[in-house]
Design goal:
Chain lengths: 328, 328, 328, 328
């Protein structure tokens, strides 16, 4: 029979995303609701190995639901990838009589949690916090919705100047391996083309498409490019190619960069974070372990961490088609 | 065998919502993509009866995806509720050789469309555009997500001043019959209590809860109240009751009002609108009629208009519980 | 010869305004820069009388420059209006060896500071923090610029729905005695009429003007009303009058309320706050007392508190004229 | 005796800036108010030479006060720099019986207008529209205030992620020759250092300063860099230098780019644009010519175009000092 958990710990790890603070708050308050003590661990697994954690109560997390970033700070830890590192972390948790860990982050975070669980049979629960939406087992990762709005707002601004000058803009958005951000903001930003890692359009077809677009009467164009797009080695090479192979266009590049990770979370992300925190805590208290909490068909569901890590999210083909039709 | 549709019309009716323009744009561009002529009808059914419509092409809807309101304007029509009114509308459509109608709006709009379809066997397709999210057959109505963000942003601002002054704020949000907006923004805004039409908390329990909240160390509080909440006849009476029955609180009221309907649509609403417009047009072209386009489990699905109108959306009980736990 | 100040205190009092935190941060950091200890006083004069203050260092005010409200909280104090109350406050200051006080607030705050200075010869310096911009001796009070942007954003949203429905909206904005907010947002929001306390248009002329506006082809209209406007006892009576005396308009009312006080301060308010904090501290250190820091012709200037209080700001007649021309 | 002007033209030229549309609207409505016909010229001087203009009335400019970019579009014209080009433009204006020209733009635009005036004695009036605030004769150019808020909002977002990861961020903002944007957003964004073209800090001193900053307990830092800063050839070289010469910092770069030019104008810019448009039209009607309209000490004033072009704005030394004190 599993022993009753009396104390939980929560940490954020890997790249930060909007909604992480709301999730921390939710974990802490769900613990308070169930009379469980909750420890906040600083700087992810780094802090865990150092014992850099402290108790948080319901009031400690006041006023953070609308803050970007993470009050627990985040880090990537090399040492936790070693057996020795994980042993250190385990010792610190046992010492503090902590009986379960909620890890908020992406697939690197989950891999660490899963191995940790396998080695020490220590209860872990993952909450998917990343703007990339590249985790299987949830329709939305924490921060994805906020990042979409941040990017669309930036594209709206760039369009103002693009259409005042009849310019062609290449706008790079985050998404090294997946095009979820690019595809959504491309549609929402009214982009003429969307270049994503999952689909290799080819440079010639891009130039063809832009030429058609201009012929059909569009005087300015926006092309959204995911970081990891395969067409050009990078967006500046893309610009060079178009400069050389298209006439009459004034081509500009904008790399949106790290502002995509910040900002007050959207209502959706705050609600999602609140739901996920409660689900994570209550799942651990129900002696579930090694799962990720996710949103599937509108409901909170658990997915084994292993599946969340191994799986690869698929691009929504319907969206690709909608995007094509919209750039008619 | 149904005849081939060559021309479609699109209108917006009832209360406007963010994303309506994005939906109009999508309907128009999906028509262009399928070489169908598209007419924009002004002022909803009023304009339809008057023949106040004109052809729109892909360029006509340029630059509107990010605009609130509706370029086709909206209205509520008494005359269209009469047989004579609908006959007028039918005559105008036949005269212009229009073979199908996309109606964007809420349940009043859909009721009109359904009766019109039944009487004249005229192909109609509904797109749910309302901030209230009170339509069965779609997890999200157009504008709901944007309105949530607008309201949460306002609550964040009010909280600044509430917590600077140790005040209790009653904030009224839209939702005459349903508490979807209130419930979501209440969680996202960190409200201590959420009063919704679906649940009668009772004034005494409200005062108890606020007292507990203060005892637990909270110096300021926010209570989100849906327009249609049953507790008090209105929010000002609520304030009076609390003024009389609680000591030491400086109680203020804020009615957010019509700003909730406006603003640039969120990325989510723009993408949803784009998907719905395509689905509506292609469904009509596939000779489907009398349906509403909706988002169910992440996919575009059709629901008979009759079901969309008759049904009553249910409040998400999980959210109610999360809200309780968060105000620990 | 005045003694050298070693410790300063800072407080916020009266209604809060965006930029107060930025001003607190600036006062604290200017003290650190000059090796002066700085005390933060909680809840304005209330906390001062109770000795509710603590030392703040440069790191204490980290991350607050972009936060609305005031981390020191604010209050209105009746007791400080009595000689006994002020004596208490003086005793607490002397006990803590504090040699000067920076008071951030409006005319009520300054009146308190001035009387306190006169009675105890205690060095005081005022920073004008109020969204109303009703203080003589500065072209801009802290928070005014932010509030203008907040209100204009709300008006933009309301206009979306107003123009979708051909409606007339009365929008009430803050400004009990002065029309600065109303005048600026009225111009920026494209209002057809602006009703301010300084100018009595008269109800008949308002109706005339709205009728002319409609005749000239405007289908929707926005009228911005300052809280303190003299025309109607309040905005709802205004609506009733227009309902009765104009035909065919669907009249709606929106009272923007307390959200006008909150939100992240604009760049302008943050820079202004930073300048004012430095100026206030350095003026006290230079043995100036009983002044308010202000922005005049782009420069930091001192105005005797007495003048700041007694004076009445004047409405910019050029703006009134521009407003008339714009609603052509 | 100068002849009475019956028709005016307005154009936007050079880089676009938020508020240009509000200025166009104001010029058009001021003309309507004075019963003058107003022509909108497309694509700046290019369109002027081609006769690409059309009459605009008060309704034509409805709903544009809050739109970024310019409905008249903008361009840079090589041909207008030739005598032949200007002759073409003159012929088109005379042909259309237009008696004066309002040119909205920066110093390039004004240089063109001034030469045109000198050659053909044609009445011209400039309105300073550029986000850089680098024009003598006005405390604020149109778009400067909006750009400041856009940049500060982006910095706030980047700070979220910077402080979650203990990172050092170099953020490049616009300002090729002047540091006005950098200096203001640096203060408002709480930057540790601000690198501007007007001041050569030197790379060693930068590294020293960052080291001091870290020693004093700051775990993350933001350095704002104006495009034209002299320290490094560009911001990526700056990063390389710091990577090589400082240990333990994770250095990132963000180039904000063209989004700084777009977006809905702030209240300030809308009001300023409205005032400038009226002043420009009424000055031309009063037979003034070859001036720029500007805001000086809160009032609308005229400055000879020649002075506006030749002069070089100075960095506000008080702001530099405040910035130093704030990064204490």
């Amino acid at each position: 029979m599993p022993k009753q958990i009396k104390k939980l710990a929560v940490l954020t790890s890997g790249g930060d995303s909007p909604g992480m603070n709301a999730a921390i708050r939710s974990v802490v308050r769900a613990c308070a609701y169930h009379d469980i003590e909750c420890y906040g661990v600083y700087r992810g697994y780094e802090g865990l190995m150092e014992g850099d954690f402290e108790p948080l109560n319901a009031r400690s997390v006041k006023g953070i639901i609308n803050k970007g970033g993470t009050i627990l700070k985040s880090a990537r830890s090399k040492e936790f990838r070693t057996k020795e590192g994980r042993q250190k972390a385990y010792d610190k948790l046992i010492e503090a009589q902590i009986g379960g860990l909620v890890a908020i982050g992406g697939d690197g975070t989950f891999t660490g949690a899963m191995i940790f669980n396998q080695e020490f049979d220590f209860p872990v629960m993952g909450i998917p916090g990343t703007i990339d939406n590249d985790i299987v087992g949830t329709s939305h990762t924490l921060g994805f919705d906020t990042a979409l709005n941040t990017v669309v707002d930036a594209i709206d601004k760039i369009r103002d100047t693009a259409s005042s000058h009849n310019r062609l803009f290449f706008i790079e958005v985050m998404g090294r391996d997946v095009g979820h951000i690019a595809l959504n903001v491309g549609i929402a930003g009214g982009a003429e083309e969307i270049l994503i890692p999952e689909e290799d359009l080819g440079l010639d077809r891009l130039v063809d498409s832009l030429n058609r677009s201009r012929t059909s009467g569009k005087s300015s164009s926006i092309v959204v490019v995911a970081e990891g797009d395969k067409i050009g080695k990078n967006i500046f090479q893309l610009k060079e190619y178009v400069d050389e192979n298209m006439e009459g266009y004034d081509v500009r590049v904008s790399v949106l960069g790290h502002m995509q990770r910040g900002g007050a979370p959207s209502c959706f992300d705050r609600v999602l974070a609140s739901r996920m925190g409660v689900k994570a805590v209550e799942s651990l208290l129900a002696n579930k372990t090694n799962y990720m909490v996710g949103l599937l068909n509108g409901k909170m569901e658990l997915t084994p961490l292993e599946n969340a890590i191994k799986g690869k999210t698929k691009i929504n083909l319907e969206l690709l088609r909608v995007s094509d039709i919209m750039s008619t």
